[in-house]
Amino acid sequence: MQYTFSDRVQSLKPSAIREIFKYSSDPSVISLSAGNPAPEAFPVKEIAEISERILREDPISALQYGLTEGYTPLRCFLKDYMKKKHSVGTDNDDILITSGAQQIMDLVSKSILNEGDTVICENPSFIGSLNTFRSYNTRLVGVPIEPDGMDVNALEQTLKNEPKAKIIYTIPNFQNPSGITMSLEKRKAVYELARKYNVLIIEDNPYGDLRFRGEFLPCIKSFDTDGIVMYSGSFSKVISPGMRVGYVIGPAEVIQKMVVCKQGQDVHINMWSQIVCHEFVTKYDFDKHLENLQEVYRKKATFAMNLLDKHLVPNITYHKIDGGLFIWCELPHEVDMPKFCTDAVKNKVCVVPGTAFMAQETDETHSFRINFSTPTDEQLEKGITILGEMAKNL
Amino acid sequence: MQYTFSDRVQSLKPSAIREIFKYSSDPSVISLSAGNPAPEAFPVKEIAEISERILREDPISALQYGLTEGYTPLRCFLKDYMKKKHSVGTDNDDILITSGAQQIMDLVSKSILNEGDTVICENPSFIGSLNTFRSYNTRLVGVPIEPDGMDVNALEQTLKNEPKAKIIYTIPNFQNPSGITMSLEKRKAVYELARKYNVLIIEDNPYGDLRFRGEFLPCIKSFDTDGIVMYSGSFSKVISPGMRVGYVIGPAEVIQKMVVCKQGQDVHINMWSQIVCHEFVTKYDFDKHLENLQEVYRKKATFAMNLLDKHLVPNITYHKIDGGLFIWCELPHEVDMPKFCTDAVKNKVCVVPGTAFMAQETDETHSFRINFSTPTDEQLEKGITILGEMAKNL
Q1: Is residue B49 part of a domain?
Q2: Does A173 share its domain with A302?
Q3: Is B89 in the same domain as B125?
């Protein structure tokens, strides 16, 4: 049979990163290309305890069908917690439990975007979200990112040029891949521009709790008196990504449409993991757990940055980070970046070429992304040393 | 803010059944409207054992990110098992683990259907799947179902009339809601028609293992030498629906596109539940478990049908079933069926009006659906007795 595919998926390609993973399955290759949280940060003992208790005391709740909106006690907890801790959520907002943050991008897209509509994102930005927007046949327009976040002048120009813009997608904390955090002034400016041009903001915040240095900044959602921000949260980086539990807090009217889409997409999120997350955040010391995580990542990030300072700088520069999982390294502009990344694989180190994160494949970048949370210290040391030797020969 | 939604979701409504659930949250109302498997059929003890072992011996596998395609040992087991037991799957096929069968409908739709394409389904059919097809702005055309399955003459006429038909959606075993099983002759005829008109078949088989009487019939997929059948399987009815584990076996070329869509939709299915399912089917006696399930459902279905014979027949007739979870009851044609269902709620019994399952809301039906797996025997007895009293006054 000759298969014909829908227009929207004709040109879709598997995530470039997932393709790169194929190299990293070679055990002799050091992978600095993943985005996995550090396994030593998983609360294994607590999850095992909770799981044993659930399956003994109330197994049917964990095994029977649940509500599409999510496990009610978890939704109530998150509403309250996000309101108290981050001033996120108003009486006009509702909450939906999703498969990590990834499903939020899909459900917002499906609910809001027609083919040909525009999504504005930081350039570079997270490939997983960009691919979701692409999968609805939309137009992706990137706005350059500066050391304090999105270039707001360029954002306004883009909003003027793109009458079909419906969504601004931003990762304000320790952005993937750049590691950049948006300043408070810019958070306010982006909010005002979205309001002025009647565009929704998706504020994707998977790394916000992984700040190991500096002051926490308010979420864009905390200014949201107009119902224009969809706040995207996730337990993937703070409890476990394999559980696939995320949550979106946004205008009830939009959430309702997303719930209908979700009914037809997966019915609801695995009940066991929702109950485990709820028990973990309510019956254990979640804040203490976050502090421990921050300590794990402070150590790993500091170790990685020291290695970069020693081996790569000044030939290769990078943006110092205060949290998150990624470091964005920039090659001299005369160097062929894709070739550098291919050569790195030949030298048994895997990094992600910056092109993977650009709104358009033709958008220029001289950078590549490295991850420090997945590799061991030994792997980091060996991998960055090899990159350093390559840097010397540039 | 004034929200504008995408064309595809403008007219989408929450599942009529989920709306009916609101009545059934009233504890004084007997719900015969659900579709939940019987909780006494869940292998609770085994799942608790497996879970404890996984979280002790290899917790990171259960908690870290996994592959979009699914947990490799589970995929390998299912490929082998479905090939050996049901002759399902060829060398040109691949397998993808999904969130129950529901996500299969979404991923096939997203990969194959453009807006305005036609999906042909049995009329009535499963509302969850129909709503997913609708959510891609497609045209749903129903083909009448006869006591031995889809009317194949009407199917051919529909294929002639619908040049943009891309998919035939069928539930060949104990169809939801009709309870009807398609004969072997018709399975072959539907396959030949799909081949002749170059249309994919989605063979949705969530209830196949719940046959408690009569001979198992071959899957349509077992004839599939041409790569035109997507076989949709699920653990929801045989292990646990709250785990959200299903699987699709189909042409590798189509599965590849579905994998790309799934990357952007939810990344992958919860790892814990995939590993639990794999351990359950490989380390315990899965066939024995299925026999036990069949015994549970034989008892419940027989009990329900005896009550229907006693209280409803001949005023209300129904199709005798050999498996599955549902019974389709037909009112005399002069009776106002929606009013009957509303009156039933007033009398504290909840059933699903047949209109919920029709391809078009205007398609005629005089039937309603009852479920016998979720209520207790006492609830069944009380609920059907009330319906019987209503039937006497028709």
Answers
A1: no
A2: no
A3: yes
Q: Which chain A residues are closer than 8 Å to B100 by Cβ?
A: 266-267
For chains A and B, CB pairs below 8 A equal 246
CA distances from A141 to A119, A168, A360, A369 (A): 6, 10, 8, 21
A380/B contact by beta carbon, under 8 A: no
The pTM is what? 0.97
- Those residues whose C-beta lies under 8 Å from the C-beta of residue B303, and which sit 6 or more positions away, are B372, B377, B380
A241 and A334 in a single domain? The answer is no
- Residue B341 near residue B368, CB atoms below 8 Å: yes
Task: Answer for the pair B158, B121: CB distance below 8 angstroms, yes or no.
Answer: no
B48 touches chain A (CB under 8 A): yes
Q: What whole-number distance in Å separates Cα of residue B254 and Cα of residue B263?
A: 15
Is B296 found in the same domain as B271?
no
Give strand pairing partners of B119. Answer: B140, B167
Domain that holds residue A203: 45-283
Distance in Å, alpha carbon of A146 to nearest chain B alpha carbon: 27
pLDDT digits (tens, 9 = 90+) for A59-95: 999 999 999 999 999 999 999 999 999 999 999 999 9
Q: Is residue A26 located within the same domain as residue A104?
A: no
Q: What string of DSSP letters covers A211-270?
A: B-SS-----GGGG-SSS-EEEEEESTTTT-GGG--EEEEEEHHHHHHHHHHHHHHTSS--
**Residues B55/B273, Cβ–Cβ less than 8 Å:** no
ipTM, interface predicted TM-score of the complex: 0.96
Each residue's pLDDT tens digit, B299-311: 999 999 999 999 9
Interface test with B, best of A22, A261, A262, A373 (most B CBs within 10 A): A261
